[in-house]
Write a structure and sequence with these properties.
331 residues, mainly alpha, 13 helices, 78% helix
Length: 331
């Protein structure tokens, strides 16, 4: 799933009324564990799935089934899409799923799942930089500037040492993961500027379906069907694909939306810091991925950078609100 910074979530879900007292404690615990552990574990599941299933087909099947289930759910609730929503979902599906998830699934044929998760975790940094570049307006504070420098340093360390020294194809795969992170960041920016309204489940279902069609088409054009046989798919790959569909795309996403209805975006966004840690640990425990000092240092740098960027952006937003209030008061 996508990794959103606190500032991004606040942009996409600006009207939220926290009501933690009304939420069942078991549901709260389950929901937070879902976005912490399940989303962190999807990187390892992707690695297992693409072992014997072509990567673009893996992503396409995953999102096709998940999107269909969510769409049926929405139709049962009598939610109907508009043409504007469908058109926007096609564009979002391209940024998020065709390029964003397509490159990730392809890259994890070579790239360790922990390394991939750390590169994806840098996404909030690219969102800020691309937003500032598009607006041609640079607003920085010390916290934000430190976060950007720390994040770029962490990514450079990953690309310069971890990727280059991890075997053939890892550097190219890591570069593909970064391209996917940039594409996802562009999708977030488009989502903000499109001002698309509607039920989040419906919009997600449409985007998943649009992305799945593009992924399956791209996989066919790339020739992934050649030599592919369902009989050759291992049990582990089938289980991983089922896990990605049921838990990664449905359970965790539903929990995420439920939490946004009951708690502040800042609290829900804490999964951004936990997911890479979970991914690195699971890759080490179950896939034998090396956790070197360089990986640990990069993990600390990237997670610290995301926290600083989130805090810095929140500080800018608070300053902007105070300035607007002061201006109104002076009038």
């Amino acid at each position: 799933m996508p990794i959103k910074s606190t500032a991004v979530i606040e942009e996409l879900h600006p009207v939220i009324v926290p009501a933690p007292a009304r939420a069942n404690r078991a549901a709260v615990v389950f929901s937070f564990l879902s976005i912490y552990l399940i989303w962190g574990s999807t990187y390892l599941a992707i690695r297992y799935a693409v072992e014997t299933i072509p990567p673009l087909y893996t992503a396409g099947l995953r999102h096709l089934i998940a999107g269909t289930i969510l769409l049926v759910w929405c139709l049962a609730k009598r939610l109907r899409p508009t043409w504007a929503q469908i058109r926007a979902s096609i564009i979002i599906g391209t940024f998020f799923f065709l390029i964003g998830h397509g490159t990730l699934h392809w890259a994890e044929q070579k790239v360790p799942s922990g390394l991939a998760s750390l590169l994806i975790a840098s996404e909030p940094i690219w969102v800020f930089l691309l937003t500032a570049l598009a607006a041609r307006k640079w607003r920085l504070n010390a916290t934000l500037f430190a976060g950007i420098l720390l994040g770029i340093g962490g990514v450079s360390l990953l690309m310069g040492r971890s990727a280059l020294n991890s075997g053939p194809g890892v550097f190219v795969g890591s570069l593909a993961v970064l391209i996917g992170a940039l594409s996802w960041s562009l999708g977030i920016i488009y989502s903000r500027r499109s001002h698309l309204s509607g039920h989040p489940l419906l919009l997600s279902a449409l985007s998943l379906l649009a992305g799945s069609v593009q992924l399956l088409f791209a996989g066919t054009v790339a020739g992934e069907y050649r030599g592919f046989s369902f009989a050759a798919v291992s049990v582990r790959s089938w289980l991983a694909l089922g896990y990605l569909i049921l838990f990664g795309s449905i359970v965790a996403f539903t929990a995420y939306n439920w939490l946004l209805e009951h708690y502040s975006p800042t609290l829900v966004a804490t999964h951004t810091y936990v997911n890479p840690i979970v991914a690195v640990l699971l890759g080490w425990l179950f896939a034998g991925e090396a956790v070197t000092f360089n990986v640990l240092l990069s993990t600390g740098m990237v997670i610290g950078a995301v926290m600083l960027v989130d805090r810095g952006i929140s500080g800018l937003q608070q300053t902007s609100r105070v300035s607007r209030v002061s201006a109104v008061a002076q009038e």
